[in-house]
Design goal:
Blueprint (H helix, E strand, L loop, with lengths): L7 H30 L5 H13 L1 H39 L4 H14 L4 H12 L1
Length: 130
């Protein structure tokens, strides 16, 4: 029986090897994504890196991380900051918290409709002007 020869140590070893392979391919995918996102790299250099990834897979990934690792981190931070700024702009646009005049006009409309009291209007007005 094949299953009888498969003990706990073999199962743990197989899980460890599987984890290492998954981790390696995640790093490879991250390197390839970084390579194609980098606008400063020429097309010929990108092609050369891809050929190296295909021919010398583990060594090419290791060399890529050593040579371009710092720039890779900087590009990720820059991209995250850009996405955060775009998200913040979207939230401001969706919330309508643009200029104070618009906020005061919206508060005045709520006051005229009787939705809010004069004290709430005064609080919203002072918050908009602050």
């Amino acid at each position: 029986m094949v299953l009888a020869d498969f003990n706990l140590v073999d199962a743990l070893w197989a899980m460890f090897i599987f984890f290492i392979w998954v981790m390696f391919f995640m790093i490879l995918i991250q390197c390839v994504m970084d390579l194609f996102r980098d606008d400063s790299e020429s097309g010929a250099m990108k092609a050369l890196w891809v050929i190296c990834f295909i021919l010398f897979l583990p060594f090419a990934v290791l060399i890529y991380l050593i040579v371009r690792g710092k720039g890779m981190a900087e590009r990720n931070i820059e991209r995250q900051q850009q996405q955060q700024a775009e998200f913040n702009d979207y939230v401001k646009q969706a919330a309508g918290t643009g200029d104070p005049a618009t906020q005061i006009a919206n508060a005045k409309a709520l006051l005229d409709a009787g939705t809010i009291s004069q004290a709430e209007f005064d609080a919203m007005k002072s918050k908009a002007l602050a």
